[in-house]
């Protein structure tokens, strides 16, 4: 097999050497999923989920942090900027679906309501969240929204749960990540 090679040197011009620098995030190895999820409230204590969520967004081996995009109009068109996002911009959604008829126990929903409706002062302490159904990490979070019964509020009545103590409708919990533990 013949190999052809060629090389040459030539001067393009005297230019200042420029250096480009780029920060690349290398995702960590995913910790083994070994649970159903956990919330640790500073006054209510620890709650281990009775059932893991069926769906979740913005979470995998770690929080999925979207880049930040900004655009402004200029005389010549627009100036666009894109930079690395921040973990405090991440909102995670946990969703328990009632596709099969039951999303979770009424007791689990009541515990989520208790954690959501009693927010601690974030300057003093924060709720800790461990999504152990997907990774082994822990986060400080603010519980920003909880819905059940298909509306914007929380329905806790005989229509949404059955005699066996299960919720018949979807439940959705939104958490804002404040920091990583």
TrEMBL record:
Protein origin, superkingdom: Bacteria
Name under which the protein is recorded: Uncharacterized protein
């Amino acid at each position: 097999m013949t190999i052809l090679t060629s090389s040459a040197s030539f001067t393009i011009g005297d230019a200042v050497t420029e250096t480009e620098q780029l920060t690349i995030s290398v995702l960590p190895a995913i910790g083994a999923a070994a649970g159903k999820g956990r919330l640790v409230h500073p006054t209510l204590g620890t709650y281990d989920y009775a059932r893991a969520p069926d769906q979740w967004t913005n979470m995998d081996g770690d929080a999925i942090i979207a880049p930040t995009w900004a655009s402004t109009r200029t005389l010549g068109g627009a100036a666009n900027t894109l930079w690395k996002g921040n973990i405090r911009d991440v909102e995670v959604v946990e969703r328990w679906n009632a596709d099969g008829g039951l999303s979770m126990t009424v007791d689990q929903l009541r515990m989520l309501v208790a954690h959501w409706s009693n927010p601690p002062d974030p300057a003093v302490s924060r709720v800790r969240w461990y999504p152990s159904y997907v990774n082994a990490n822990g986060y400080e979070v603010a519980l920003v929204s909880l819905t059940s019964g298909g509306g914007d509020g929380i329905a806790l009545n005989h229509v949404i749960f059955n005699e066996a103590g299960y919720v018949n409708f979807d439940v959705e919990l939104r958490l804002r990540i404040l920091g990583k533990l």
